[in-house]
């Protein structure tokens, strides 16, 4: 995701991984109200306000979501994008294949206990990856990432994507 504008800067939020969701929401609401197209009479000003509103919405969405925020932050810090580095831990693919297979069987057999157990596993994995990302970003601070730091963060983000996709595709109940 190439950012035209820094969403942190646009929303006036400190450029860190850990952000205050209430502050983010307040900034979003205030800026949305300030730049709402209906506040303007002139068609050119309305068009400019509509573009700004779109930018504000995009910035808010990218900072509200943990995974998107980590991707944006890594890119802003000079790290590799998901298109540039698709690396994964060697054991992750095999583990995910086994878990997905177990999940498919549980869904087919309508075994809600197994589905819940696997969903809980994925939720815990997600929290673990988010915790590791938070620690890695905190160590770096506001600096640009080194090549090694960028690779390490990207590896965690790519892994997190697999876990997120599994959660998105798994029913909450069967």
TrEMBL record:
SUPFAM superfamilies assigned to the protein according to its UniProt record, in alphabetical order: Chaperone J-domain, HSC20 (HSCB), C-terminal oligomerisation domain
One Pfam family here: HSCB_C
Coiled-coil parts of chain: 93-120
Gene Ontology MF terms: ATPase activator activity; protein-folding chaperone binding
One biological process term in Gene Ontology: protein complex oligomerization
Keywords: Chaperone, Coiled coil
Domain J: 6-78
Superkingdom field: Bacteria
Matching PANTHER family: IRON-SULFUR CLUSTER CO-CHAPERONE PROTEIN HSCB
UniProt similarity note: Belongs to the HscB family.
Function: Co-chaperone involved in the maturation of iron-sulfur cluster-containing proteins. Seems to help targeting proteins to be folded toward HscA.
Protein name, per record: J domain-containing protein
Organism: Poriferisphaera corsica
